[in-house]
Q: What sequence folds into this?
């Protein structure tokens, strides 16, 4: 009974689960034998076997007379189910955003490399052609995976024609990024390391604020979706932008 319930939880009907389990026990069999084993009518068995074949759980063996069926391993079915759940979880923040009321504050927390990937990809397509502004971190204490992730994010931004203005620390770990600023549509202003040496980035895209900790010990991110909060941070950014000059160098 528990086996049937497990298959039902993954999307099979009660009778489909019975047919599939019966065929697993039989190895290969005709629709008649499968119907007997599963205790369903033969016409019903044919319909259910066809549905299971479409779901990739059953194969038809070529025979001259009697049509024979064989069950495929459940491992692939369970693996596909895990992938579907993972994909659904990734879209959860987007789905939740549909129920938000105007001016409400919605905060979403992400952790580890997989979470950072979600946070960096958040609503990129929806903000195509717009600008992102923010204060960005040095890359001194990041893993190779997060380093690669940052470049993938830059490529996605470029693909969606999103430009970026920001402040960054003067540091050896950001040299490669500065060389590619023009190519990726970025205008960055460097701040002296002794004044600004953050390992956490904060930026504004559309109506949300994103805070990202890139350090390999505790990679995590928070997205705060609220129009007033985003407006406030953008105003702070613009005030500082007016007070600084392009390509500011460290004081000697």
A:
């Amino acid at each position: 009974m528990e086996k049937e319930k497990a298959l039902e939880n993954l999307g099979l009907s009660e009778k489909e689960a019975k047919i599939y389990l019966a065929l697993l026990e039989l190895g290969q069999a005709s629709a008649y034998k499968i119907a007997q084993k599963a205790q369903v009518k033969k016409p019903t068995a044919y319909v259910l076997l066809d549905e299971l074949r479409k779901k990739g759980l059953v194969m038809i063996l070529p025979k001259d007379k009697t049509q024979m069926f064989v069950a495929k391993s459940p491992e692939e079915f369970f693996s596909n189910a895990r992938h579907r759940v993972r994909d659904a979880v990734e879209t959860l923040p987007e789905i939740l955003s549909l129920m938000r009321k105007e001016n409400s504050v919605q905060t979403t927390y992400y952790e580890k490399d997989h979470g950072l990937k979600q946070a960096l990809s958040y609503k990129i397509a929806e903000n195509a052609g717009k600008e992102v502004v923010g204060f960005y971190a040095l890359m001194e204490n990041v893993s190779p995976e997060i380093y690669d992730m940052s470049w993938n994010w830059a490529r996605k931004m470029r693909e969606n024609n999103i430009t970026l203005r920001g402040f960054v620390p003067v540091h050896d770990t950001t040299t490669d990024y500065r060389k590619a600023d023009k190519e990726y549509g970025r205008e960055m202003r460097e701040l002296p390391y002794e004044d600004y040496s953050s390992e956490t980035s904060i930026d504004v895209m559309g109506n949300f604020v994103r805070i990202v900790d890139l350090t390999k010990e505790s990679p995590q991110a928070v997205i705060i979706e609220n129009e007033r909060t985003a407006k406030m941070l953008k105003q702070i950014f613009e005030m500082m932008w007016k007070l600084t000059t392009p390509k500011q160098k460290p004081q000697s």
Observations:
- The radius of gyration is 27 Å.
- Confidence is low (pLDDT under 50) at residues 248-252.
